[in-house]
Design a protein that fits this description.
Length: 250
C-alpha cells in the first residue's frame, strides 16, 4: 500500500462491561472505512474476541495476539481482511488474557503506541476495542489514543464508571486525549433513559434497537444491514463528531 495521511487512534473504553463497547467499536470502524474512506484497522484487545466475531473472523491459530507485545512479531501477520477493502481486523485470542502481566514485565510504557505507529504507513485510523479493566493495558491504551470514546448506558453504575475512566485518563497521560461520552443502548421509553438524555443533550446517542442487535446475528455492521435505520444514522452522527474532535488536534 502507499503511504497515507496523518493517522489517529480511537479507543472505545469503559471500566464497566456490557455497555455496548464492542458493537460501537465495530460500527465506528465501518464508518471510518466506508464513510470517510480511511484505511482502517479494528484492533481487538479484549480476550472475548467480540470485534472479530462481529465481522465473521476468527483469530489465527496458535494464540499469537499477545506475543506481538512481548516478542519480535509484526502485527501485520495477524491482521485479517474483511468484506470491505479499506477495513481490516486484528482479532483477539486467549493469549490476550496475559497481556497485562506481559506489559508489566517488559516495562515499556508506550509499547502499544509504538506498535500502532508501526502500522501508520497502512492505516489512517486505528480503532481499539478495549477490555473493561484498569491496569497496565488500559494505561497503555490511554497513552496511545488520540481520542477515547466512553459508552454510557443510562444508570448510576455507568455514571460511576465514567468518573473512574476520567480519573484514570488524567492520571496516566500528561497530555491526555480528549474523552467523548456516548449514551449507549438508549431506550427513550424508559424514564431513566429520557432523564439521562435531557441531562446530556449534547452527547452522541446510540439507541437500543433491533438493527444493532442484528450486527451479532448477521456479523455485519448496522450501516450494511439497515443503512436507513435510526441506529445507522446515529452511528454516522457519532463518527462525524469523532472526525470533528480529531480535526481540532493541535
Amino acid at each position: 500500500m502507499a503511504a497515507v495521511a496523518q493517522s489517529a487512534t480511537i479507543a472505545v473504553y469503559s471500566v464497566k462491561g456490557g455497555v455496548g463497547k464492542t458493537t460501537i467499536a465495530a460500527n465506528l470502524a465501518w464508518c471510518s472505512a466506508e464513510l470517510s474512506g480511511h484505511p482502517t484497522l479494528l484492533w481487538d484487545l479484549d480476550a472475548a474476541g467480540g470485534s472479530g466475531f462481529l465481522y465473521g473472523l476468527e483469530p489465527h491459530k496458535g494464540r499469537q495476539a499477545g506475543e506481538i507485545f512481548s516478542q519480535d512479531r509484526s502485527p501485520e501477520k495477524l491482521i485479517r481482511k474483511t468484506a470491505w477493502d479499506t477495513l481490516d481486523v486484528l482479532p483477539a485470542d486467549e493469549s490476550i488474557r496475559a497481556l497485562d502481566a506481559q506489559l508489566t514485565a517488559i516495562g515499556k510504557r508506550r509499547r502499544l503506541a509504538k506498535l500502532i505507529e508501526s502500522l501508520a504507513t497502512w492505516y489512517e485510523r486505528v480503532i481499539l476495542d478495549c477490555p473493561p479493566v484498569m491496569n497496565e493495558l488500559s494505561a497503555q491504551v490511554i497513552r496511545a489514543a488520540d481520542l477515547i470514546i466512553v459508552p454510557l448506558p443510562p444508570s448510576p453504575l455507568s455514571a460511576r464508571a465514567f468518573e473512574l475512566v476520567v480519573r484514570e485518563v488524567t492520571d496516566n497521560a500528561k497530555r491526555h486525549p480528549p474523552i467523548l461520552p456516548v449514551l449507549s443502548m438508549l431506550d427513550m421509553r424508559r424514564t431513566l433513559h429520557r432523564q439521562a438524555r435531557e441531562e446530556n443533550p449534547a452527547w452522541p446517542v446510540i439507541p437500543y434497537a433491533s438493527a444493532v442487535e442484528q450486527c451479532a446475528v448477521q456479523q455485519r455492521p448496522v450501516g450494511a444491514i439497515a443503512p436507513q435505520s435510526l441506529a445507522a444514522q446515529r452511528f454516522i452522527m457519532l463518527w462525524r463528531a469523532i472526525e470533528h474532535k480529531l480535526a481540532q488536534r493541535g
